[in-house]
Input
Amino acid sequence: MLWTTPRMIDHYRLALLRVLAGLFVMAGLEPGRAAVAVLPRRGRLAILQVLRGLESSARRLIHVTARGMDRPATMGREACALPRHRVADASGDVATLGFSRIPQFQLIDPRKALGGLEPERLGRGLGRSLLFRVAGLGGSVCEAWAAASPLPSPDDPLNAVPLSRRMQAAFHALGDLDKQARRMMRAVARRAAAKPGPGRVPPLRPGNPPGYRQRHVHEIDAILHECQCLARREPVPPDIS
Output
């Protein structure tokens, strides 16, 4: 069993940054700049299919980085009283920040919903399936339903602000894995101190990671496979005797 070295982590970190740079070019976005308002459906879907695997790979690199750090003290509710999107300015007043603030990278894997689907994929295409189920009720019903919900077009403009913020968050997370590893350890400490329930699940979900594809159709698929192997590998120190 091999030992995970900082050089291995940095190798995959640079590979993820290279893939992310391609996504920024596809979106017409620059790191640290304002989010893109809209993207065509086909472009947004192409970016999202790669971004899921990239975020999962980054989370696994952060998890591996956190292994060599000291565990933080357990944080209670008093230590987390301020909301996540608020900070204290120089005068001590708490001010709410808008989109100008760097978004926080999501350190917890999204959990699988019913049927093994991702939560963001639920409801996709349900209206169309219901449309064909009621086809026997009469042509007028089907025609009215089809007119109310036309088939989506690949060129339809869709809101791309949340997607842009996820890309910016991934870029800043890959720029400082140690900081993200400390965030993950604090999150684990808070979850360990919480009551038993869904809030105590580990950051990395069991089974295949989000964005995993058995058939490698993009560079991110191979990177995600390697990062998943690193995260599952037990930390065994090298034999220097």
Observations:
- The chain has one domain: 6-113+154-232.
- The CA atoms of residues 68 and 235 lie 9 Å apart.
- The longest strand covers residues 38-40.
- Residues 6-113+154-232 form one domain.
